[in-house]
Automatic annotation (TrEMBL):
GO terms for cellular component: membrane. Residues 74-191 form the THD domain. It comes from Ictalurus punctatus (Channel catfish). PROSITE patterns: PROKAR_LIPOPROTEIN (PS51257). It comes from the Eukaryota. One of its GO terms (biological process) is immune response. The chain crosses the membrane at residues 12-30. Keywords: Membrane, Transmembrane, Transmembrane helix. Belongs to the tumor necrosis factor family. The keyword Transmembrane helix applies. This is Uncharacterized protein si:dkey-220k22.3 isoform X2. The keyword Transmembrane applies.
Amino acid sequence: MAHTARAHVTWMSAVIMVAVTASCVTWLIVSKETIPRVKIINGTSMANMFRVPPSTAQHCLLKVHNSTNGNHLAWEEEGCVENFSLNDDKTSITVKEPGVYLVYVQLTYSLKKDGNSSNIHLNLTVEFTYTEDKVEFNGAFDNRQLTEKEQDAHLTAFFLLKMTAGNKLSIIAYPKNRIKYDDVRPFSSYITIVRYADLSG
C-alpha cells in the first residue's frame, strides 16, 4: 500500500509541475492576511514565488472516507509525512510548516437515478481556515443528467496555496450522499497536497 501511495504521489507531482510551468495560468492564491482571490501569474511572478525551494520534501495523499459530518468530507491517509495532520473527525487537514502548497482534489459522484429527479447539481467547495477567519470558495461545479444505469461524474479542482503553520483545509461536497466511497484501487475521490516551496518573505 505504501509503495502504491508513493507511486501515486510521484505521478501526481509530475502532472502538477507540468501545469505549474505554463506561461500564464489563473491560480487561486490564499494567504492569512487576505481573503482568497484569483490572480494571474506570469513567468516572473511564478519564479519569485518558487525561488526558495522546499527544505524538506512534504506531501500528503488522502482518500475520501464515509462519514456523517454534515457536508464536510472525511479523509483517510494513504501516504502522508508528519508535517500534515487530520483533526479528530478527519474532516480538516492542517499544515504544520509555512510554504507554497499545490493541492489537487478529485471527487467522483454516482449519477444513477434513485428517485423522480432527472438532473442534479454537483458542487465542490473548499473551506480555508487561517488565524483570523474562515472562508469558503467554489472549487468546481456541474449540472448533470441522471441515468438509468450506473455512471460517474468527476469534479476536479487545482489550487496553488500560500499557507502558514496551522492553516487548515476542508472540502465540502454536494450532494455528499452521491460521492463514491467504495472504490478500492484505484480510489476515485481523493486529495493530494504537495509542498513545493518555502515562503520567501
